[in-house]
Amino acid sequence: MLSGGDADGARGLEEIKAAGGITFAQSEDTAKVSSMPSTAAATGQVDFILPPQAIAEELARISHHPYVTRPIPTKIVEELQCDQIHPSRWKSGG
């Protein structure tokens, strides 16, 4: 979940897409601050622009896809656990 004024969330979307992730933006007509989803959409990095309920439904659908449900390689799990134990390794969003 990303949120932010200026282009903070938009930069995060670019990072997610660069890592092969799937991105969502809330539809402008359902957002309290319509500039946030419009800034995100303008990046060209948004896969889905949906109202909140539809985002939840799409996440549920995607969660059953074979690419998502396959086991995570042990090396990645170990690296994630290490990052959780050692916050000094976390990257700052600046």
Keywords:
two-stranded parallel sheet; 5 helices; 94 residues
> Strands of the largest sheet, in order across it?
1-2
Q: Name the average pLDDT.
A: 77
Distance between the termini: 17 Å
Low-confidence stretches: none
Strand content: 5-15%
Instruction: Report the total helices.
Output: 5
List the secondary-structure elements in sequence, H or E. Answer: HEHEHHH
Q: Into which percent range does the helicity of residues fall?
A: 40-55%
SS-based class: mainly alpha
Estimated radius of gyration: 15 Å
The biggest sheet, with number of strands, parallel, antiparallel or mixed sense and barrel status, is: 2 strands, parallel
Overall geometry: globular
Description:
- By secondary structure, this protein is mainly α.
- It contains five helices and two strands, in the order H-E-H-E-H-H-H.
- Helix 2 links the parallel strand 1 (about 25) and strand 2 (about 50).
List the helices and strands and how they pair.
Layout: H1 8-18, E1 24-26, H2 35-42, E2 48-50, H3 52-62, H4 66-69, H5 74-85
A few lines on this structure:
The chain is mainly alpha-helical and 94 residues long. 49% of the residues lie in helices and 6% in strands.
